[in-house]
Design goal:
By secondary structure, the protein is mostly helical. The chain has ten helices and four strands; from the N terminus they run ααααββββαααααα. The protein is globular. The strands form two sheets. The chain has a two-stranded antiparallel ribbon. A hairpin with a 4-residue loop joins β1 and β2.
């Protein structure tokens, strides 16, 4: 099995999101946007329902996403940033009616079923291949992309480790996919 890579170039992230916006496939755009901005594993992402992100009584989006991670069983609280909220609003506007128990990433097959992991992989892979994004890109790339860009913006690895609910720093280091180009950039930019 090949190692999955994060999307390191911010322009490629924008192209990936724009790929589905241009095709007016808002569900797929939202899947990619939330995947990159929440750091959730694809299994947890696909199980999200509208009641997890939208307060139907007060007609507003929640500020935080509360998730019990399937893999770890741990509860996590994720702030929904501007990009996530824009994507969710676009998705909500593209669907009628939106019901509390509906999955965000609804499959066309069956009644109120989420898309499967294989379909999510196809969505991500199709756009990445069409755009010639470098590396092995998969569903897990979205999660890794979050960590890589958080690290590049100066977020301490210990905080990223906590966000990911990793048991060790070694696991987090592998997620960050720091390569020679990243190390070179540190040396070249740090002119003391």
């Amino acid at each position: 099995m090949q190692k999955t890579h994060p999307i390191k170039d911010a322009k490629d992230i924008q192209k990936l999101k724009q790929y589905y916006l241009d095709r007016q496939q808002i569900r797929n755009y939202t899947l990619i946007t939330l995947g990159i901005n929440t750091s959730l594993r694809i299994g947890d992402l696909l199980l999200l329902k509208w009641e997890n992100v939208y307060d139907f009584c007060n007609r507003c989006y929640y500020k935080h996403l509360k998730v019990c991670e399937q893999k770890t069983g741990k509860n996590t609280l994720i702030a929904l940033n501007r990009e996530s909220l824009l994507a969710l609003k676009s998705l909500k506007e593209s669907i009628s009616p939106v019901l509390e128990k509906d999955y965000l990433f609804k499959s066309r097959e069956g009644i109120n079923r989420p898309i499967c992991r294989t379909q999510a992989f196809r969505i991500i892979k199709k756009a990445a291949d069409s755009l010639h994004i470098e590396g092995t890109i998969s569903c897990h790339s979205l999660r890794k992309t979050f960590g890589y860009h958080a690290w590049r913006k100066g977020v301490p690895p210990a905080v990223i480790m906590t966000i990911y609910n990793h048991s060790s720093m070694e696991v987090t280091k592998r997620y960050l996919s720091i390569d020679q180009d990243d190390k070179d950039q540190v040396f070249l930019e740090l002119n003391l």
